[in-house]
Write a structure and sequence with these properties.
- By secondary structure, this protein is an alpha+beta fold.
- It folds into two domains: about 150 residues, no CATH class; about 260 residues, Alpha-Beta Complex (Aminoglycoside 3'-phosphotransferase, Chain: A, domain 2).
- Helices cover about 40% and strands about 15% of the residues.
- It contains 15 helices and twelve strands.
- Strands 1, 2, 3, 4, 5 and 6 form a six-stranded antiparallel beta sheet that branches. The chain has a two-stranded antiparallel sheet with strand order 7-10.
- Strand 5 and strand 6 form a beta hairpin.
- The longest helix is centred in the middle third of the chain and has 24 residues.
- The radius of gyration is 22 Å and the shape is globular.
- The two termini are about 20 Å apart.
- Pfam families: EcKL.
Length: about 425
């Protein structure tokens, strides 16, 4: 499930800077950085001269994020500076964890074990693939924390909108296919078990319903005004009553002999990709970030995110089917380049996966397609979401005008018909 915070401009998190900075002092210390850099550089004589916790951080579902500048010395140099991103388990003002769940543990496991295995696999065949920023340090004790190199210093940023050029989007999709292929190879050929990556946000049904029920309710009100589409209202209501079960089933690994599984990034939308453009504003370099929701299961889990990477034409269409074919070609090519000796899943196999594990697309479409038509220059986070003073619950301030934007309306109407034909509604 996409995280709203990752789809919004970076500045929306700054209002929480003061509280988070106070909490950070409990675990971001010179001692921590000395230990981290000593481990990273294999140098015991690290001395921290100064460090600055900078603005521009964000907060995700299971981590608090800071950007830090560290000045230090070692026996090999007088002065060095390291720019890092620090991710830690979110805490309250007493330093107690505020989120219970394995998401942060997932990311530490990815950075310390799984991603190195992927990189080593490709390097055996002379291929260098950039799956994530370089790890500086990660530990569970005395508090779960990850420190990675800050790519923003090198001109990387997180895009807000899909890429203008299809070829740029295809570069991302090729990298995704390589990621999936590495996990499939290691699972099938080397017997690596990825089943520990099993947490689905749909296990927390109250969280999912609390976050997304409001826009669905508003959408159902809008449907009452769309001639010929009113019969979808009870279908969507029934769908939302089962959303936890639908989501869990969509993200449950296939049993042996039925489909196939890969390790999915799990949250691969546009805000979880760091990109660097050249002087012509074409994609030059990029990497993935935020592996908290990585999950072993159908490749459909990640492929369902591809639409968020594709620019829509004047009619709101995207070349999704063409890109699925391209993904499969690159997946097969990656496996062949690694010397994979077993049968490679076919394009038919992939399309069956997309059909069998695609029902969450109904919710994702209703909630996230309208966000494509929000003008972030005139609407901010507070405009989009309101807090009910009586209940304390957060609700989405979707208006009829957003859902009724001509292209948005056309997209959603086509999606509803397609979802019905596929048996998802």
């Amino acid at each position: 499930m996409q995280s709203l915070i990752n789809l919004l401009p970076e500045c929306e998190s700054i209002s929480r800077m003061e509280d988070s900075t106070q909490v950070s002092s409990k675990w971001i210390t010179s001692t921590l950085f000395e230990k981290a850099i000593a481990s990273y550089k294999n140098e015991e004589t690290i001395k921290i001269q100064d460090f600055i916790i900078e603005t521009g951080f964000g907060e995700h579902l299971a981590s608090t994020i800071f950007r830090c500048k560290i000045d230090f010395t070692s026996s090999n140099s007088e002065n060095e500076t390291l720019h890092v991103v620090v991710k830690a388990h979110p805490t309250d003002t007493d330093g107690r964890a505020t989120f219970e769940g394995p998401l942060f543990q997932n990311e530490i496991r990815m950075y310390t074990s799984t991603l190195p295995a992927f990189h080593q696999l490709y390097e055996r065949f002379g291929v260098k693939v950039d799956f994530a920023p370089e790890l500086i340090y990660a530990t569970f004790e005395p508090f779960p924390i990850i420190i990675i190199k800050d790519r923003n210093i090198d001109g990387y940023s997180t895009p807000r909108t899909p890429f203008e050029e299809l070829e740029d989007s295809k570069m991302i999709i090729q990298r995704l296919s390589q990621f999936h292929a590495a996990s499939y190879y290691l699972s099938e050929m080397d017997g690596i078990d990825f089943s520990e990556y099993s947490y689905s946000t749909y296990q927390n049904e109250a969280l999912i319903y609390g976050l997304y029920s409001q826009p669905v309710k508003v959408f159902n009100e809008v449907l009452k005004t769309w001639d010929g589409y009113q019969h979808f209202i009870p279908k969507i209501e029934a769908y939302m009553e089962q959303i936890g079960e639908i989501g869990r089933k969509s993200q449950t690994p296939n049993k042996p002999g039925i489909g196939y599984n890969v390790l999915n990034h799990g949250d691969l939308h546009i805000r979880n990709i760091l990109v660097k453009f050249n002087s012509q504003q074409r994609l030059q370099l990029f990497t993935f970030i935020d592996y908290q929701l990585s999950i072993f299961g159908s490749p459909a889990i990640d492929i369902n995110y591809i639409s968020s990477l594709l620019k829509r034409d004047s009619n709101g269409d995207i070349p999704f089917e063409d890109v699925v074919v391209y993904y499969h070609q690159q997946f097969a090519a990656a496996l062949k380049s690694l010397g994979f000796l077993k049968e490679i899943p076919s394009l038919i196999d992939l399309n069956v996966e997309l059909l069998r594990h695609g029902r969450t697309n109904v919710l994702m479409s209703i909630v996230f397609v309208p966000l494509l038509f929000v003008d972030w220059e005139t609407m901010n986070f507070e405009d989009l979401m309101k807090t009910n003073e009586e209940s304390g619950e957060i609700s989405w301030n979707f208006t009829e005008s957003i859902f009724s934007h001509p292209i948005c309306k056309s997209i959603l109407q086509r999606h509803l018909i397609s979802f019905e034909h596929k048996g998802w509604l």
